[in-house]
Amino acid sequence: MTPEQVDVVDRTLAALRAPDAFAADFYRRLFAAAPGLRPLFPPSLEEQQRKFAAMLVEIAAGIREHDDFLERCADLGARHAGYGVRVEHYEIVGDALLAALAGAPGVHWDDEVQEAWQAAYALISDVMMGAQSAALPVSSTGQPSRPS
Ligand code: HEM
User: Where does residue 116 fall: left (phi above 0), alpha (psi -120 to 50 degrees), or beta otherwise?
Assistant: First the structure.
């Protein structure tokens, strides 16, 4: 990401007036695009929406502090290995995320902003996917399965 793109991402997040409404819109778009993902999440999404928006803001705000950012993304990715998430889900999530951001009240969206967010999501999801693939596979009992 260029320093200008980091600034653009910062500005989008600062302009986001209603993070909860944005997160609700994101999950609506995600499940409309991929209904099969809904069972991976708890029945009530209220808590999840809050956590997702807060984590996104925290991670994106930390892009400037490179080491902390990488560690945070890697930890989050490793945890996602236990949620039934597969690497091919990241693209669907990225599309829903950018569409929700583009439509969020207060957010200015144009080609430059879109490119900056594509770069930011690519960075975040690459580190998450790398850590997720490295994490132990989870068996159908939900327990990590170690090679015997
Ligand atoms: C920018 C990328 C993402 C961010 C910031 C993010 C954020 C979060 C956060 C903060 C949690 C709460 C638990 C925790 O902190 O470990 C969570 C849980 C979860 N996420 Fe993500 N996530 C991302 C990508 C994805 C993707 C690609 C999927 C694929 C479907 C996904 C599916 C889930 C599921 C199923 C849970 C567990 C819900 C539960 O059982 O409570 N996430 N995510």
Answer: alpha
Number of other CB atoms surrounding residue 132 within 10 Å: 22
* Domain range enclosing 98: 3-134
Would you say the CB of residue 113 lies under 6 angstroms from ligand 1? no
Q: Which of 9, 55, 101 to mutate to test the pocket of ligand 1 (most atoms within 8 A of CB)?
A: 55
Q: In the chain, how many domains are there? A: 1
Which residue type is seen at 35?
A: P
Look up the CATH number of the domain holding residue 93: 1.10.490.10
Between the alpha carbon of residue 25 and those of residues 16, 65, 68, 96, the distances in Å are: 13, 29, 29, 9
Q: Are 124 and 98 in contact (CB under 8 A)?
A: no
Atom of ligand 1 nearest to the CA of 34: 30
What would the pLDDT profile of 83-134 be if each residue is shown by its tens digit?
999 999 999 999 999 999 999 999 999 999 999 999 999 999 999 999 988 8
CA–CA gap between residue 64 and residue 13 (Å, rounded): 14
pLDDT at 141 over 80: no
